[in-house]
């Protein structure tokens, strides 16, 4: 009866959790039976439960479809590119902006820089469509150099570059806020000592600022690794078109199209389940790494 | 002397670079403003760095008369207010107990919540659930299904965990229970993380959200702004635009790009106006939340 | 303690209350505009049937709209209007169907969806005899627009599930318009017929100052070219008997694609030469409708393909966008032709297959509710083919919203001469109940005043050419490859015409095209043709 006693002791805490737990059971676990769709031949007229079992047919279908690998590859590539190029930008930006001495100007730059973060991809997408269009700014520059205009958003040579750069455009300011905070937390005495030693600004940035940021950088990096299979549905969905599917189609857009557009519900559920399993493995793995590297403070559970 | 010069050169490029950052960031907005101000019969400016020959505010005046936009605004504001409030309450209520190591079954609860971060039932069962709860075509379909995000629970839990033990200890010695401590001690200290989560939910889930509205809302009187926008920005074929302009009773006065740009600006302007006011809260919030989180 | 409990309980209560509140507000259904008169019975005592129709303009639907009331009373039904608007309509419909919520009638979906729905058992069979019995005029219209056995192409295992909505004028819709006043200015007496005469004209339109403004600021012909292969100077390809971008039959009953036929090579050679000499629009690859329109209206180009309605007064049919240029420049005068004749006597341009989709279909629940299916069919038939119903729903009340002129035309009575007022009264396209059965012969008196009848009839019969054979067919192989092939073909055509790649490499292009999947696509089309269309 120790358990009952425990429950009595912590009944307030347990009661506090009730509303959210009801929510999770109803809205999150409630629909989870839908996962069986991945193992069924979905017949609309028979409903999910009564549709005939299909075993691993849809997984076989995915794993034997060369296009499935294209999609997985795109997802990982786009995600890693965003990580590779997008991750350092806010760090650099924070360090550089920290060098700006005029407080008012600094505040202005900062404020402007995280503005795009608040604009939806529906709107941003519309803006970029016009900037990269045939008579848009980029093509005007291209033409200045005497080249033919290029349909950038329909060209698989450029599409990923555009994805990565517009992603950076949207997020660098916002993500730099974290690093600003960390920089602000650095003990000023460290800098004073470095100045006394004759270190210049560049040396101070490399020797003091950067190392002080390392813990934050590593935590954020680990967190990012867990979502490698999320390449940015909203962004891609609002920018891509058939002509760039071979480089731009990612798991989420593929699942969306298979499911909602082509009505291949079982297949799309199977692919999505595949994604979930990988994500689970990644999260558990990363959590373990975090635990052994950074102690309990930084773990997810 | 050289050193000082070096500093000057560095400063020069630093400032130049920062001005560049501002220009690049603001440029897309600038072009949209210019396009939205160019009347149909004036030469198009598109994206050149120049000002249209003639400026006309017709676009904005006509959008003012487009009922769907206002309906969209009202619904978006409603869903944001309702959604953020409910999310914050539910999330904080579950995050606090989880921050207590002594809570029985803590790891189990955490895993139950975390599991939903990776696994979901997919579109059809979710859709059927919303339908069976009779939430279709109602604001609740946009508020309830995504109300508590596992990730936000984690952020809040970590924040609560990072608060100094001593504060709660002294309250407990004074005879306060968990409920009182949560209300009187923890919550007042948690404004930054609450602000951060509120802003995240408010902007990304509700203000900019469209997918759920696309699926669950059929009634144009309950539609949200982003869907109204999407219709104009992406259904960019001549036929739709023409049909829409006839619906709006504005005939062929507009060029497609102008109408789109006007709509874009129209949706962005309120954000731009509200932005300076909320800015200081979220900066503090994310600073606190992120370092700890 | 008590306070806390109250807080928690009230939270849960709020949640529950909210859910209940929204339940009672929407009876779990789609957004329906409540029927006008909540009556469940009519005067005759028979219960009113509930039917649902879609509209693309639900914002403007009013429960007391004249058209709604008229149909409700005439057919003893309660009509619910639901929206069919926006690019997401299809996705929403399919999702709703997948979750078991099947609407009574659906339509305007891509052909592949139709077959998928049939396969899933979601649709009700519509026996051909039932159509003949309850929609006789509709059936005649099918026969006129498609030919004998009009439903054959859609049959699945010998059963019919579709009510196709053919666009009867599609077969002859596209014509080539030439500025007749320019012809005169450059000294050409008769409208060019052969490709040589056509070429001569293009050069003169470019070099001989056809607009007589003393500047060399014109060229011969413009064309769309940005989005679809069939848009690229289609009449020129037509002169060599090929139709790029669509499936057509060659003389021997073989299914071919124009872009890889030998005729295309000759056409590309011509176009490359013209491109080099600047007699065709050098920016054609950037052109969508808007750009073509700009070039024509700015009087830079003297020749363009368009629907025949473009070149005759708007009152005579629809829009008349190029005829409207006369307002700014009274000298503008258009002459239309089907396209230049090639060396083998071939001519014509891309035309639209009257059957592009499967039209309307019924949800499976109507298979067990024959009475309701028939009710819908009666309403479709009346709306699209019964004069009295059509007039009431589209023109309203004689003496109030419309009157007959001395010529026998239908004329609006002000203030109902604006679309806004008509919609407000409850008439017109907002209440187009079945959606897409446009019998242009039937609708002629409403579209074209008597005095324009001759103009319209002359314009209607000019266009010839070929349509996409596979338009209404399910082509999975093609669906898989078509985007890749299209992108590749567009790029190659741009390069050939623009001189970046010599046309002598055309055969190499054909090889590449076939290797990329083109051959599979052709084989599939041939097979479908042999099975279903021959």
From TrEMBL, chain A:
Q: Does the keyword Nucleotidyltransferase apply?
A: no
Q: InterPro entries, per this entry?
A: MetI-like (IPR000515), MetI-like_sf (IPR035906), UgpAE/MalFG_permease (IPR050809)
Give the top-rank taxon of the lineage listed in the UniProt record for this protein: Bacteria
Topology of this chain in the membrane = Multi-pass membrane protein
* CDD domains referenced in this protein's UniProt entry, alphabetically: TM_PBP2 (cd06261)
Name where it's found: Cell membrane
Keywords, comma-separated and alphabetical:
Cell membrane, Membrane, Transmembrane, Transmembrane helix, Transport
Q: Indicate the segments forming the ABC transmembrane type-1 domain, all copies.
A: 72-286
SUPFAM superfamilies in the record? MetI-like (SSF161098)
**Transmembrane regions listed in the UniProt entry:** 12-30, 76-97, 118-138, 158-184, 205-223, 265-286
Q: What PROSITE patterns does its record include?
A: ABC_TM1
Q: Indicate the principal place this protein occupies in or around the cell.
A: membrane
Family that this chain belongs to: Belongs to the binding-protein-dependent transport system permease family.
UniProt protein name: ABC transporter permease subunit
Q: What is the lineage of its organism?
A: Bacteria, Bacillati, Bacillota, Bacilli, Bacillales
UniProtKB/TrEMBL annotation, chain B:
List the transmembrane segments: 12-30, 77-96, 108-127, 139-160, 181-203, 259-278
Name the domain of life. Bacteria
Q: Where in the cell is it found?
A: Cell membrane
Q: Which UniProt keywords apply?
A: Cell membrane, Membrane, Transmembrane, Transmembrane helix, Transport
Q: Give the matching Pfam families.
A: BPD_transp_1
Q: Which CDD domains match?
A: TM_PBP2
Q: Which InterPro entries match?
A: MetI-like (IPR000515), MetI-like_sf (IPR035906)
Q: Where is the ABC transmembrane type-1 domain?
A: 73-277
Q: How does it sit in the membrane?
A: Multi-pass membrane protein
PANTHER family for this protein: ABC TRANSPORTER PERMEASE PROTEIN MG189-RELATED-RELATED, POLYGALACTURONAN_RHAMNOGALACTURONAN TRANSPORT SYSTEM PERMEASE PROTEIN YTCP
Q: What's the family?
A: Belongs to the binding-protein-dependent transport system permease family.
Its name, as the record gives it, is Carbohydrate ABC transporter permease
Q: What is the lineage of its organism?
A: Bacteria, Bacillati, Bacillota, Bacilli, Bacillales
From TrEMBL, chain C:
Q: Where is this region: Disordered?
A: 26-49
Coiled-coil portions:
none
- PROSITE patterns tied to this protein: PROKAR_LIPOPROTEIN
Pfam families per record: SBP_bac_8
Instruction: Look up the signal peptide feature and give its range.
Output: 1-28
Q: Which UniProt keywords apply?
A: Cell membrane, Lipoprotein, Membrane, Palmitate, Signal
Bias (Polar residues): 26-43
Q: What is this protein's name?
A: Extracellular solute-binding protein
